[in-house]
Design a protein that fits this description.
By secondary structure, the chain is α/β, with parallel strands linked by helices. It has a domain of about 300 residues: Alpha-Beta Barrel (TIM Barrel), CATH 3.20.20. Helix content is about 30%, strand content about 20%. Strands 1, 2, 3, 4, 5, 14, 15 and 16 form an 8-stranded mixed beta sheet that branches. It has an 8-stranded mixed beta sheet with strand order 6-7-8-9-10-11-12-13. Strand 15 and strand 16 form a beta hairpin. The radius of gyration is 23 Å and the shape is globular. The N terminus is likely disordered. This is Amidohydrolase family protein. Keywords: Signal.
């Protein structure tokens, strides 16, 4: 079985090798740029970048891909994802999305755990996903596996540090192209749970978490002003390690956004108040009851990462969850990004289905496409670099057989950084291996004939 797995992974790696770069023109399709629509458009790719987008003809000598009757979009961006970090969440050795060390919380950097050969990545590509915002797992988050005893106590652990920590670590941007280096940018945001999950970490009450959180920010500012004294052991004991204190300085300075997982409308109002008082730059994650306070979120210019099909009151934090949440937030002027399901790892490709459901409940189609493409890039400070079909942006381009939000539509051609990608996954290879008894000529493989 080990030999079979190695053969399958090797075949998948070989099949995923990108085609050589050349000038390519995708012509005749309905082009959704992320911000506009061009009928019978032409997208020209050269050197890993988009050269032009418009209604003109293909350049002389370019390779032409005829997209007549098809739809052309930017590559989709998976947000709040574990792609490249988690293979099987219940097998600890294959999951680098979570961390329980009390001396490393805010400083936990997921970029060092990325696996370019993850078998979940080609599956995500089949759903038109070309980039992802990968985040550390934490209590209250949408994915991964969290043990109850990791979040039901608070206090000082070994060395007097916070145990468990209020912060989960930092997020990174990756691309999903075949190859050996998928990291685009590390440390693009800090992550912290609030609401019921955050209260559990801090001792059981929301008020305790906010008090502890504000005191932690005070300690970070104290440390930043007195690094010399800290080095001489002439500063009072602090509740975070030096690595965590350093990691939080950009957060308290309002330079690095803080992804706050929060669900209840009242909790959303309180974290917005916290951000005003402390000068923090927020991104809300979840916000199932966000429609109740949409005007407050919009007034604070705070974006939201959401799953629009999260509509059941699974606990008292989500009593008002509804399918119209995405539409209501968008109508109020909130910038939204739509998530996949179960941590956006094995089901990351379902983000487009979620967007389609949001459209059926009032979200404009163009807003749904933006929530999968240009909005995530802008939210994480990379607007214009990807997620949009425009001159100068990375050539992440997907050709669809039809409406990309329709489940029966499929990817027919896909480019990441200008390199055409294989549309094969390990599941395809296993299907082909065992179809009709195992091999094209029939019969099981030799190892199974004994």
């Amino acid at each position: 079985m080990r030999r079979l797995a190695l053969i399958s992974l090797t075949a998948l790696a070989l099949s995923a090798m990108p085609a050589l770069a050349q000038v390519t023109a995708i012509t005749g399709g309905r082009v959704l740029t992320g911000t506009s629509v061009i009928e019978n458009g032409t997208v020209v790719i050269d050197g890993g970048r988009i050269v032009s987008v418009g209604a003109g003809a293909a350049p002389s000598g370019a390779r032409v891909i005829d997209a007549t009757g098809k739809v052309v979009t930017p590559g989709f961006v998976a947000v709040d994802s574990g792609l490249g970090l988690s293979e099987i969440s219940s097998v600890a050795g294959s999951d680098d999305q979570s961390n329980n060390a009390n001396t490393i919380s805010a400083s936990f950097d997921v970029s060092y755990g990325l696996d370019p050969w993850s078998i979940a990545i080609p599956v995500a590509r089949l759903g038109g996903i070309t980039r992802a915002i990968v985040v550390p797992n934490h209590p209250g988050g949408s994915g991964g596996h969290q043990h109850q005893d990791d979040s039901d106590f608070a206090g000082a652990g070994d060395g007097g540090f916070q145990s468990p920590g209020l912060f989960a670590g930092t997020a990174s941007v990756i691309h999903l192209a075949a190859g050996t280096d998928i990291l685009v940018k590390p440390r693009v945001a800090m992550v912290a749970p609030f609401g019921e999950a955050g209260a559990g970490i801090a001792g059981g009450a929301r008020g305790a978490q906010f008090t502890q959180f504000k005191e932690t920010l005070h300690e970070v500012r104290l440390y930043a002003r007195n690094r010399g004294a800290y080095d001489r052991a002439a500063l009072r004991d602090l509740s975070l390690s030096r690595a965590d204190l350093e990691a939080l300085i950009p957060v308290v300075n309002g330079e690095l956004p803080l992804i706050v997982t929060v669900h209840r409308a009242a909790d959303i109002q309180q974290v917005l108040r916290l951000a005003r008082e402390e000068g923090l730059k927020l991104i809300l994650d979840g916000a199932e009851e966000g429609w109740l306070v949409a005007a407050d979120i919009a007034a604070a210019s705070t974006p939201v990462l959401l799953n629009p099909i999260s509509n059941l009151p699974s606990n008292l934090e989500m009593r008002a969850a509804r399918m119209e949440n995405a539409a209501a937030l968008n109508a109020a002027g909130v910038v939204i990004a739509i998530k996949g399901n179960e941590g956006s790892v094995h089901r990351a490709r379902e983000a487009r289905y979620n967007a389609g459901n949001a459209v059926s409940h009032g979200l404009p189609f163009e807003a749904a496409i933006a929530a999968l493409t240009v909005n995530p890039a802008r939210i994480f400070g990379m607007g214009g670099q990807f997620g949009e079909l425009r001159a100068g942006a990375a050539a992440d381009v997907v050709v669809w057989s039809g409406d990309p939000l329709e489940p029966m539509s499929s990817v027919t051609t896909e480019f990441i950084n200008g390199q055409e990608q294989s549309l094969t996954s390990r599941q395809h290879l296993l299907r082909d291996r065992y179809r009709n008894g195992g091999r094209a000529e029939g019969g099981m493989p030799v190892a199974y004939q004994q």
